[in-house]
Amino acid sequence: MVNGSQPGIPLRAMSHVPAAIPLRLENQYFTLDMAHPAARAMLLEGSCVFYVPGLLGDPELELFAVLRS
Fold first, then answer.
1. What single-letter DSSP state applies at residue 55?
2. Which H or E run includes 32?
3. Which InterPro entries does the UniProt entry name for this protein (predicted)?
4. Where on the phi/psi map is residue 19: left (φ > 0), alpha (ψ -120 to 50), or beta?
5. Cβ neighbour number for residue 22 with a 10 Å cutoff
6. Do residues 49 and 6 lie in contact, with contact meaning Cβ atoms separated by under 8 Å?
């Protein structure tokens, strides 16, 4: 993504956390903009990469997939 200069999928802060995801007050929750062309490409490729700049330290990331109803 970074070395290949690929655009990323925009993140949106979540105002409501789905019931399927454990809520922890100290966490920040985001969703991927699945309408973005890069999101469609990710689904077609079947792979997902996260880039976290060193400025953010060493965050602990958890990824949850929630099925749409």
1. G
2. strand 30-32
3. T6SS_TssK
4. alpha
5. 9
6. no
Name residue 32's beta-bridge partners.
Answer: 11
Handedness of CA 14, 18, 21, 25 (dihedral sign): positive
Q: Please report, for residues 18, 20, 34, 52, 64, the alpha-carbon distance to residue 67 in angstroms, rounded to integers and kept in the order given.
A: 10, 9, 13, 25, 10
Write the pLDDT tens digit of every residue in 7-30: 789 999 998 998 889 899 989 999
Return the C-alpha torsion angle 33, 37, 43, 49, nearest 10: -70
The answer to whether 39 touches 9, Cβ cutoff 8 Å, is yes
Residue 32, judged by CB atoms within 10 A of its CB (0-12, 13-18, 19+), counts as: middle
